[in-house]
Specification:
Layout: E1 3-4, E2 10-11, H1 20-35, H2 40-53
Antiparallel strand pairs: 1-2
Length: 66
């Protein structure tokens, strides 16, 4: 179920905290992968490899309580 707030924002259960640009590109990735018969596992393997190649800075660390 998707609802709209007063500002017209679409809200869905389990909505992502990712920026809209990231969500849009992931949707494109899903579409291209499905059209090319690439499995979710293969897509995730490539994503993990590329993410890891960027180094530790690519993975945000949780903030410590102050």
């Amino acid at each position: 179920m998707i609802t709209r707030t007063a500002a017209g924002t679409r809200v869905a259960p389990g909505a992502s905290r990712a920026p809209q640009a990231v969500v849009e590109r992931i949707r494109d990735l899903v579409e291209v992968s499905a059209d090319s018969d690439v499995s979710l596992e293969d897509v995730l393997a490539v994503l993990r490899t590329l993410w890891t190649e960027r180094g530790p800075a690519a993975t945000p660390q949780p903030e410590k309580p102050t």
